[in-house]
Amino acid sequence: MAENEGGGVRTPSDVDGAAGPVDYHAVFSVLTAPKAVLSPDLTILDANESLLRTIGAPASAVVGRHYLDVFPVHGPDGSAVDRVVLSLERVARTGRLEMIGPHRYDLRGPDGGWAERWWITTNLPVLDAAGRVTAVVHRAEDVTSVVQAGGTTAPEPPAGPADPTALSVVDQALLLGSSVDRYADVITRERSASLALQDSVLTPPPRIPGLTIDVRYRPAVPEVHVGGDWYDAFVHPDGETTVVVGDVTGHDVAAAAHMGHLRGVLRSVAFATDAGPAEALDAAERTAEGLGLQALSTVAVARIGTPGLTGRRAVCWASAGHVPPVVRRADGTAHLLTARPSAMLGVGLGGPRAEHETSLDPGDTLLLYTDGLVERRDRSLRDVLDELPGRVEALGAVPPDALLGALLAELVPLGSQDDVALVMVHVDDERTAAGGA
Q1: Is 299 helix (H, G, I), strand (E, B) or coil?
Q2: Alpha carbon distances (Å) from 111 to 76, 107, 108, 115
Q3: Where are the alpha helices (H) located in 112-219, listed in sequence order?
Q4: Is 320 helix (H, G, I), strand (E, B) or coil?
Q5: Using the 8-state DSSP alphabet, how is residue 134 labeled?
Q6: What span, in angstroms and rounded, lies between the C-alpha atoms of 93 and 222?
Q7: Residue 29 belongs to what H/E stretch?
Q8: Residue 10, SS3 per DSSP
């Protein structure tokens, strides 16, 4: 299968063989590394002979079953399966190749016992002519001998084209070990670069009398690349405040760079034109397109007004395909701000986005977040979102400046497979503050 410019694989219909059509199933079957082809919902569509031999199962026990039915969570590193599954789901959603460094997944031996095995896995999207993901190729490389040996330096390869069949098993393992080290080094440097980009862009929120604004950014777990989540908060000349969260598609340095560009465009447009949230999203999309910034992103924007006589503040908000904000009232109740969804930025569907209104009284809190806070492999996003207000209500005793930390500890205590960005705006109760003084 040939790789296209977008990092995916062209389907056989895209390739014309000079001597007639190529039997790609036959090619797939004889490839030496274990491989499986999965549908976007992670049903196994095919498995090559190497994979079937590795797990000791016939095709009838594999094909047509979900990945987790064939590779259930077990062993000393059960989280490895979660990492692989979440990577498969991201590849199916984003169309971007992902690799996962050495991780342990033991296999059952003929005697019924478990044999220690370490793997490097690669998940590669198969794209149709329209760029949609139609399948995911899952490849596993057994690096057990390299990991168990540890610390061995690979020999210099011979001059000229390499002939893998001329290398001993030991030499092949050593060369593979060198590749593993290089891969790990690339991932470490890419992750550091992404984090450095985000650190330089995600500035502290402004201090505004009458408001408590808090922000958090938590990168994904180390095995997964960081990407394009961001937050922002700034004050307009008229004293009103805009807060933003966004999530650029992708999990690499390019996504982090796109995030920085898009954040800057949206901030500049909203501040310079004094546009409301919906108008700012539309203008930022047009500007990004005109400047050639190829970035797909979900974004939520809210503009909080100055206080009235009772301390109430009007709130206008808009969304570009983003998860709904949450409002926690002073009495401890919480609810989602739901509205008809609109297109994410970069899709180019045209037409103005809708703007929605609510208000915040003293003691109320507005929460914007990215989907890393609520996405779960084993549950639908809708179900988790429905439960989110109750989870926020349960933290009613937590003071505003500690709410985001408590929410992360409650919802993603072991870290998320995706980045999480949050921004919170709490309307201070000035009467309570004055009484406490």
Answers
A1: strand
A2: 19, 11, 8, 10
A3: 144-149, 169-201
A4: strand
A5: E
A6: 21
A7: helix 24-30
A8: strand
Which residues neighbour 69 within 8 Å (Cβ) at sequence distance 6 or greater?
Answer: none
Q: Which amino acid is at 190?
A: E
Q: 287-339, pLDDT tens digit by residue?
A: 988 888 877 889 999 999 999 999 999 999 999 999 999 999 999 999 999 88
- Can you tell me the distance from the alpha carbon of 258 to that of 280, in angstroms, rounded to the nearest whole number? 18
Structure tokens at 220: 């994904």
Q: What is the set of domains in the chain, with CATH numbers?
A: 24-149 (3.30.450.20), 202-427 (3.60.40.10)
Paired residues of 233 in beta bridges: 243
Query: What is d(CA 397, CA 413) in angstroms, rounded to the nearest whole number?
Result: 19
Structure token digits, residue 164: 């893998």
The two structure tokens encoding residue 106:
């033991």
- For 131-155, write each residue's pLDDT tens digit: 788 999 999 888 776 666 554 333 3
| 6, 95 contact by CB (below 8 A) | yes
Q: Give the separation between CA 259 and CA 12, rounded to whole angstroms.
A: 35
DSSP secondary structure, 385-436, as one string: HHHHHHHHHTTTTS-HHHHHHHHHHHH-TT--SS-EEEEEEEE--HHHHHHH
Distance CA 289, CA 142 (A): 44
